[in-house]
Amino acid sequence: MYLAEPLLFALAVLPSAHASLYSKKSPVLQVDAKSYKSLIAESNHTSIVEFYAPWCGHCKNLAPAYAKAATSLQGLANVAAVNCDEDANKPFCGSMGVQGFPTLKIVKPGKKKGKPVVQDYQGPRSAKGIVEAVKDKIPNHVTSVKDDNLESWLEPANQRPKALFFSDKGLVPALVKALAIDFLGAIDVGYVRNNKKAASKYGVDTFPAVVLVQNGDEPIKYDGEINKLSLTEFLSQAAPPNTGASASASSKPAKKDSKKASKNTKPKTGDKADAGSCPHAAGQGATSNPHLKEDDAEPLESPIPDASEGKAKPAPIPVEPAPKLKVLESESALQKACLSSRSSTCVLAIVPEGSEATELPLRTNLAETAHKHVQRGAKIFPFYEVADTNEGAQTLLKSLKLPIGKDKQPHVLAVNAKRGWYSAYTGDVLQRNDLEKWIDDLRLGDMKKETLPESVIKQVAKEAEKEDEKVVEEILDEEVEGVEHSEL
């Protein structure tokens, strides 16, 4: 009896094999096989879902960063978690292709309700990395309002209320996209960027600003704080938001008590979680032993406060360098990539041959800008480097009446031969911020376009063009069908 009492006590304090990593107060939404469809698959909002096992060391290390990301994304997207160690969830986790823990998947609403697009998240396992990737996948139901479409947008046949968001920033903020989703079909949301006509019409002289326009009523200017809850209340005077538009754990600002939910799982690197994986397949009878030894799992800190806590320096995390720009060395390579009649948008850095000093920052800035978008999983057009001695580049520059020569500045151009336009970057090639803003304008379609001379476009036979399009369509169809079948 003397030996049994300590043993019983030890068993009593052991964590449950199926215990969740996230408490009920956590901003992370708890999802299971039954609730996934209604909370995630049928949601109008983008979601990120973590498939985990409570005994997995890597899952425990990720938990604080994941909870922090959930706090940052509240009201913007769903941040959910599925406990794959629960018997009822094992078949579901297996059907989602989970082979190790933690597995993160971004779920974006598809064209058909309940048939979302599911993608594996392969980015940094940090709060910042997760937040940026999810924000980039938020559907955009916001109309870009400009001088030429302002009046027509204000007076459509549906006569719905309008919400105008004025800003001097480039891309549509995630907050505005989220509000457009919440009020989809009830309030039309427009984004006004540096539009003097619209700003003058509604008396806007500072940014950001929000104006609510209702049919026949005086426009109402918003004078509160720019946050999701306050703006939702403001817009609700015109129309109620969609019920069940978001499956977030709470619509209220999260309390800073996420430490309690993961006090036993805080890694020494703060919100930087290790990028490892526990190699136990879901749905295959994985051992549910909370004391299972994992050779590559980092030891957990004691829940007892330590006087030295916080003094340890975070371990350095290797950063993948941006790959160099691809060089188009021949005229035929340039024509095939960017100057054929079926070539879509691409960015060309045309530099004097043999240049190393002035043009080196340009190469680096463009390469890092492209790499940043790729890491976030965003769609971005290709970037190429071309020497100005390339015959195709010389023909292009002469047609556009741009200077050629070793002593001249390099040229940065965006060309779309398929649609017959080009846009020349006129800023300082050494200023990365200016280049990034120009790239953002390209993505938004807000840059000035000029007509690309037909003489520089290599025409492709229609039969070959149709054949290529047919192959592309077949490949895309196969990919879409594969996602719907294997992931859902």
TrEMBL record:
Record flagged with keyword Plastid: no
Record field: catalytic activity: Catalyzes the rearrangement of -S-S- bonds in proteins
Gene Ontology molecular function: protein disulfide isomerase activity; protein-disulfide reductase activity
Thioredoxin domain residues: 8-139
Ranges for the region named Disordered are: 238-318
Q: Which GO cellular component term is one of those annotated?
A: endoplasmic reticulum lumen
**UniProt xrefs under CDD domains:** PDI_a_MPD1_like
Please identify the protein, giving its name as recorded.
protein disulfide-isomerase
Q: What is its EC number?
A: 5.3.4.1
Q: Which UniProt keywords apply?
A: Disulfide bond, Isomerase, Redox-active center, Signal
Q: Which InterPro entries match?
A: Thioredox_PDIA6_C, Thioredoxin-like_sf, Thioredoxin_CS, Thioredoxin_domain
Q: Where is the signal peptide?
A: 1-19
